[in-house]
Amino acid sequence: MKNFTKSALAASVLLFSTGAVANDMFIDLGDNAYDTAAIFSLGDANTSTGLFNEFGFSGLLATSVYDFTDGSVFGSFFDTNIPGELAGLGIPAAGTALDGVTPVALTTPTDGQQDIDALNPLAPPNIGSDSEGFGLSWNLNVLYHFDGMLTATGPVYTGGTFEVFFDDDLAVGGAIADGTKVLGGSLTGSSIVGPNLDLFFDIDFALDDFLWIDAGGGNFLDAHDELAAGNTPVLELDTNVDPPIPTADQLLLVGTNAIRQSNLDGSITASVPEPGSLALLGLGLLGLGAAARRKAA
After folding, report:
1. 3 state SS of 117
2. What was the pLDDT predicted at 103?
3. Helix (H, G, I), strand (E, B) or coil at 33
4. Which pLDDT score, from 0 to 100, does residue 4 have?
5. How far, in Å, are 3, 17, 19, 174, 226 from residue 8 at the CA level?
6. How far apart are CA 244 and CA 216, in angstroms?
7. What gap in Å lies between CA 49 and CA 88, rounded to an integer?
8. What b-and-e string marks burial along 66-92, b requiring 16 or more CB atoms within 10 Å of the CB?
9. Any bridge partners for residue 67, and if so which?
10. Rounded to 10 degrees, what is the CA torsion of 120, 123, 126, 132?
């Protein structure tokens, strides 16, 4: 029984060391309307994009709000780009930074500052690429709120959510209506090394037949169906925050909050737990349960 217990533990550990790898994706729009409406698009007969392995973003306006009640930015903070939350904070706002010299203007994001603007390597506008008109006739807008604690080594994110909405830029009126929520998820953790920040998410909402992720070997799975089956796809966001700890010349005091805005570039990858790894986890948990029962007996 001792050997069986070790095998069960090994099976459980193996899941977390090899279970999820970022793979190719494609998006299915349900019809060809957005492709045929786009300038310089491929104009093919299918309804799906070509394969890509990253959602890309550039110039994403990030607003970080630090509780400055005690005169320090260390402690609780949150990031948001939700217009209602920004308005509640008193943004737009302008004034002199905490260094007493630097002028700072806080703004609300424009459409271009809320967008996923690339499906790498289908970076629009790429003449002839099978992007189904992405970046020309349609786009993806992101709204988010993330909570965290600022420590001496940088931000540690503890929770939060994001939502992705379909943006019908040319009012094409295709199968997916303008403003439709297509993805949503919850922040599960973070990692920071120098300025490099990684955020990790579980997808908890996906529009049916919209996002398809390769689980390995060209086996593409619908994120919506995976959720329905109890199998949670995951996302990883990779960006740089420089410096990780805000400086006085970047911060504007608004009420009891010190607020910094910055423009972020980065990428988002997706993966789904491999079916074999899930089976292995089940075997491991069964083994651990059996071991516990025998020990109790």
Report:
1. coil
2. 98
3. helix
4. 27
5. 9, 15, 16, 50, 25
6. 35
7. 39
8. bbbeeeebeeebbbbbbeeebeebebe
9. 257
10. 80
User: Which residue, chain included where needed, has tokens 């037949």?
Assistant: 209
| CA-based torsion, 84, 86, 91, 92: positive or negative | negative
Q: Which residues pair with 55 in a beta bridge?
A: 119, 268
Give domain status of residue 9, yes or no. Answer: no
Average pLDDT on 32-61 reads 84
Q: Is 254 within a domain?
A: yes
Contacts with 205 (C-beta within 8 Å, 6 or more apart), sequence order: 163, 181, 183, 184, 185, 227
pLDDT at 277: 47
Q: What average pLDDT does range 142-170 have in this prediction?
A: 97
Q: How many domains does the chain have?
A: 1
Helices then strands, counting H and E runs in the chain, come out as 5, 16
Which domain covers residue 166, as residue numbers?
A: 47-296
> Residue 281: what pLDDT?
44
Which residues pair with residue 120 across a beta bridge?
Answer: 54
Q: What single letter denotes the amino acid at residue 130?
A: D
Nearest Cα neighbor of 257 from 64, 23, 55 is 64
- DSSP element (H, E) containing 56: strand 54-67
Question: CB within 8 A of 75, min separation 6: which ones?
Answer: 66, 67, 149, 150
The answer as to whether 288 is a domain residue is yes
Is residue 41 in some structural domain? no
In the block, tokens 């619908």 appear at 222
Query: What Rg value do the Cα atoms of the chain yield, rounded?
Result: 22
**Residue 219: its pLDDT value, please?**
94
